[in-house]
Amino acid sequence: MHEENKAAANGCGKIRSGAQNGAALLALMEKTGYSMVQQNGQRKFGGPPPGWEGPPPPRGCEVFVGKIPRDMYEDELVPVFERAGKIYELRLMMEFSGENRGYAFVMYTTKEEAQLAIKILNNYEIRPGKFIGVCVSLDNCRLFIGAIPKDKKKEEILNEMKKVTEGVVDVIVYPNATDKTKNRGFAFVEYESHRAAAMARRRLIPGTFQPWGHTIQVDWADPEKVVDDETMQRVKVLYVRNLMISTTEDKIKAEFNKFKPGVVERVKKLRDYAFVHFFHREDAVAAMSIMNGKCIDGASIEVTLAKPVNKESSWKPHFNGQISPSSENLLGFPNKEDGTQKSLGKPASLSVRLNGQHSPSPPEVERSTYPIFPGIKLSPISMYSLKLSHFSSAVMHLDYFCHKNSWAPPEYCLYSTTSQDGKTLLVYKVFISSIADDSQSYFMPEKLCTTVEDAKELAAQFTLLHLAPEQAYITLLSLNAAWWDSKANCTPYLV
């Protein structure tokens, strides 16, 4: 083990002086008693630490660290992260050159230590002018499966996934918004571990497996949002899913007020789901217990507490035009298995304001420009190979969503009218020919705009709110929440 540690220490001497670097890392190992091994593009410090007995720490004990200076190594990182608690394992991602790749994973022995690390080290100035970002790291065990035949039931999808992949725990299928006998054309498959999900993802690569004779889309699902218990104890908003399109906000409010009149403050319904705001948390919790599984207008509803963002786990914006991811969606959710960064397989959940609190929010899109230097190499690339963080408009999100579901690109048809004061007002109708056999193949918002750009953005946003899964609904609300509510050049229809 000593020789292995020595080899790991000497393996990164290409940036700092070999003698200085190796000596610093060997001194760290001698001082702490931790081992150090480099393999598969990462260097592992500890895991387990000296004297550790029993299984590894549970989920929620690991943090992701980004924006690490490339010439910084464990001898500088470990003392910083030890301030929050006992380190079980630190994994630093490495380049062949000997530099680190700018990010690492630090696992603590308890969840409380991990939360403390986020609190005291996020935006920590680790070197003059160099600020690191720290947020929770998640073992993603869920895959997104798109382009599923809409007539397939949960049991059929579950059985099909179990035939070709191992470790399947559950399948989550949402009913179609307009026809509850059909699914929405996608499902989430939950696996027993991240490794099982990763192996299944490789097995289900489109083209190699075609259930029911269909080519499916497979990618990582958005990782489940982790909100600390203290924050959840303050939530007084319920998330209600699987409502009928025809069900009104007044109807929902009346149903939730039945067990105790006057407890509901307000209801915000969007397509087939809603947020129910209560005056007091205890009433929200009681209503959740009573209403979950109940029928409203013939639909069996699902009721849970709405998850606000854990603000301590968010990356805060910083100066110098740096991109500042917030929550686990930063950098495309790094894959724990091989240290590479994987793009998410569907629109990520973005923020929506809930009773003065925010749900998880996405990376800020960097809008800077950079010079093209002589001799710089440019490579052709498909927009569909990019991450969602590269798209800053609903128009691009809709195009991406249609491609992911193997649909034809959306077609935009422009219409106009004249306002009472003589202004030309515009609206786009969006057609998606691939779903022409469904109950609705075109979508048109109920507001007119004075510019072509705003009309097209509004139409794309409206379409996504009707077609996309739950996460995409929230994505579009977040992308243009202020735009939607305050745009002065959008006028409701006067009919």
Spatially, the strands of the biggest sheet line up as 1-2-4-5-3-8
How much of the sequence lies in strands comes to 15-25%
| Annotation field: number of helices | 13
How far apart the termini lie comes to 79 Å
From the alpha-carbon coordinates, what is the Rg to the nearest angstrom?
A: 25 Å
Quick one: how many beta strands? Answer: 25
Q: Could you list the spans in which at least 5 consecutive residues all have pLDDT below 50? A: 6-15, 310-366, 469-474, 480-489
Shape: globular
The averaged pLDDT comes out at 77
What is the helix content? 25-40%
Structural class: alpha+beta
Report on the biggest sheet. Answer: 6 strands, antiparallel
Highlighted features:
13 helices; single chain; globular; 26% helix
Question: Your description of this structure?
Answer:
With 495 residues, the chain is an alpha+beta fold. Helix content is 26%, strand content 24%. The chain has helices at residues 2-10, 18-32, 74-81, 111-121, 154-164, 194-203, 229-232, 249-257, 281-291, 394-404, 452-467, 470-479, 481-486, and strands at residues 36-39, 42-46, 62-66, 87-94, 100-108, 125-127, 130-131, 133-136, 142-146, 168-175, 183-191, 217-220, 237-241, 264-270, 273-278, 295-296, 299-300, 302-305, 353-354, 357-358, 411-418, 424-431, 442-443, 447-449, 490-492. The strands form eight sheets. Strands 1-2-4-5-3-8 form a six-stranded antiparallel β-sheet. A four-stranded antiparallel β-sheet has the order 10-11-9-12. A hairpin with a 2-residue loop joins strand 14 and strand 15 (273-278). The radius of gyration is 25 Å and the shape is globular. Residues 6-15, 310-366, 469-474 and 480-489 have low confidence and may be disordered.
